[in-house]
Every structure is written in C-alpha cells, then in structure tokens.
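To illustrate the input format used throughout this study, we show a single complete record. The first block contains the structure-token representation of the backbone; no residue identities are included at this stage. The design step must infer an amino acid for every position from geometry alone.
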C-alpha cells in the first residue's frame, strides 16, 4: 500500500513537471566573478574553459535553496550537472530544478571535442534567442 502511494506521488510529480507550462524569462545581467573558475575540479574546469572561450558566461557553484548547481548559464537558467552523482540524486535534482524554472543538462565529463559539441548543441537548443543576442547579454 505504501509502495503504491509512493508510486502515485512520483507519477504525479513527474506529470506536473512535464505538463507545467514553462515561464519564459528574459535574460538578466549577472555578476562576473573572476576567482570562481580556480575552484573547480579538472573535468568541470575543462567544460568551463571551453564554454567561456566560445563566448558563454558560465557561473560556478550557484546556490538554489536546497541544491548546488556546479555550472550554470544564469541569464537563461540553464544548469549543467555532471552525471557522477548517481541516478536517484540526478533525477531528484533535475525534477527540483525544473520546478524552480531551470532547464537542466546532465553530462558526463567531456573528454573529446565531439562530446563538448553535443553539450553546446544542447545549450543552443534551450536558449530562447539567437546566439548573437545571447552574446550581447553576456
């Protein structure tokens, strides 16, 4: 009985996240912090450096009430989360951030240009405006 109740709660939470109409937020300005990239582990540092060299402004260690986002594109509320935290924690974090208005991209540490290009293609699929408008904001 308890298992059935738990499954119903999970199904309703997932259907809420899927059926919830996304809020379109306009890009906002973010504070630039020069020191934050030095604090990253090597796999996140590689992704951070690759994204910043391509014109993105990437924020590190964003606090979102009950969770920490290791890398994020704050103006567009895109969270970049490594897959190394486990299936349950990643699923919980994805659902929680989606409810808070974030779009999440789960990635394994990019070791090749192809994997990096896949992450960037996913980012470009999420942001609401053209690439030129995004660079103007940053």
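Output of the design step:
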């Amino acid at each position: 009985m308890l298992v059935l109740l738990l499954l119903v709660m999970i199904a309703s939470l997932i259907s809420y996240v899927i059926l919830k109409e996304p809020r379109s937020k306009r890009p906002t300005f973010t504070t630039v912090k020069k020191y934050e990239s030095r604090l990253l582990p090597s796999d996140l540092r590689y992704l951070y450096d690759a994204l910043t060299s391509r014109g993105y402004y990437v924020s590190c260690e964003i606090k979102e009430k009950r969770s920490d986002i290791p890398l994020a594109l704050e103006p567009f509320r895109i969270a970049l989360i490594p897959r190394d935290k486990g299936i349950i924690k990643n699923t919980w974090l994805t659902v929680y951030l989606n409810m808070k208005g974030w779009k999440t991209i789960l990635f394994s540490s990019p070791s090749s240009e192809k994997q990096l290009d896949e992450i960037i293609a996913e980012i470009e699929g999420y942001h609401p405006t053209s690439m030129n408008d995004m660079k103007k904001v940053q």
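Structural context for interpreting the output: Confidence is low (pLDDT under 50) at residues 133-138. The two ends are 52 Å apart (CA to CA).
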